[in-house]
Design a protein that fits this description.
The protein has helices at residues 2-13, 21-31, 105-108, 137-144, 150-154, 177-187, 212-218, 279-284; strands at 44-45, 54-56, 69-75, 78-85, 88-94, 100-101, 121-129, 159-167, 190-191, 202-209, 228-231, 238-249, 255-266, 269-275, 292-298, 302-309. By secondary structure, it is an alpha+beta fold. It has two domains: 2-34 and 235-309, OB fold (Dihydrolipoamide Acetyltransferase, E2P) (Beta Barrel); 44-231, D-amino Acid Aminotransferase, Chain A, domain 1 (2-Layer Sandwich), CATH 3.30.470.30. It is globular.
Length: 310
């Protein structure tokens, strides 16, 4: 299963997901999978590691002293880092596994300020996003970073939105996260707290300690900071019965399984079929003919089986 989830993670960060976020989270939780991103074999190290965020699915799981936190939208795009040296944009990297990313400097140069008024080495992290009016907007944004044709890249409707600063010297007056976001605005960036997300995809909220010193003192696990969490929206699926599994040949010639379901109404649509990806996915969910399953509409379009219901 680790190999399958490694593959799913790689496809997600490259903008070609093979399973939905909800399916990935469910399988990762079931099998104790906690790898972040995917390893880039021809990449460059980030100056500062790009951590993921611990996910929670209920407000009851948020910190009790929630007033100490800054809440911002969790944009659903492609995370990247950009490096400035003596105020000059020097390097742009994809997220990769958080330690090493792929060089996309030339592309990001078209999206971010080429200079900032700070003469030191500084890493800014953020998200490349596309309007949600574009089908599969996250994949559209992430896929743009893999384009080889620069002319095609600059034609993409994408935007960089910053959300964090890492640098070795604590800037005077930068004691709170709200001030960090203000500094990003002063540098000429769109930043996540004031960016108009009405027309852009989000997948939850981020809660981060406002006090930067307390955030640093809390430290990090190997995967995420202890001073921030992501509240994800978990949509409830509908329970139905798996009647049968048939195999179909796609346009590319790949044979894949499809679940035949007892028809069920999901958000006003009658669903009677759902994708199953491959035999390994069927085994991972321990599916059997006649068992009860929870079904969601991934991206509000594609029906998928999330789990078996005992």
């Amino acid at each position: 299963m680790k190999d399958f989830l490694d593959k799913a993670s790689k496809h997600y960060y490259e903008g070609t997901p093979i399973i939905s976020d909800a399916e990935f989270d469910s399988l990762a939780d079931k099998f104790g999978y906690n790898s972040v991103g995917y390893t880039v074999t021809d990449g460059i190290p980030h100056l500062y590691k790009m951590y993921s965020l611990q996910k929670v699915f209920s407000r009851a799981d948020l910190p009790s002293d929630i007033d100490d936190y800054v809440c911002t939208p969790k944009l659903d795009g492609a995370a990247v880092s950009i490096l400035y040296v003596n105020g000059i944009f020097a390097l742009g990297l994809t997220r990769g596994d958080g330690n090493i990313g792929r060089d996309i400097t030339k592309k990001l140069r078209a999206l971010v300020p080429n200079t900032i008024p700070l003469k030191e080495v500084i890493q800014i992290t953020g998200e490349v996003v596309a309007p949600k009016s574009i089908p599969n907007s996250r994949n559209y944004a992430s896929g743009a970073l893999n384009l080889k044709d620069m002319e095609e890249f600059v034609e993409r409707d994408i935007t960089f939105v910053a959300y964090d600063i890492n640098h070795s010297v604590q800037e005077p007056g930068r004691l709170y996260e709200q001030q960090t976001l203000s500094i990003l605005r002063d540098f000429g960036f769109y930043e996540v707290s004031t960016f108009d997300t009405d027309n852009y995809p989000t997948d939850g909220l981020v809660y981060r300690l406002n006090n930067c010193d307390k955030f640093d003192r809390m430290g990090f696990t190997s995967h995420h900071p202890r001073g921030a969490v992501a509240l994800k929206e978990e949509k409830d699926g509908k329970i139905t019965t798996l009647i049968d599994v048939v195999w179909q040949v796609g346009k590319s010639g790949v044979v894949s399984p499809v679940a035949l379901l007892e028809p069920v109404d999901i958000d006003g649509a009658i669903v009677s079929r759902a994708t199953l990806h491959n035999i390994e996915y069927i085994r991972s969910l321990n599916l059997e003919i006649g068992c009860s399953v929870e079904v969601i509409r991934s991206g509000e379009i594609i029906p998928r089986i999330l789990r078996r219901v005992e």
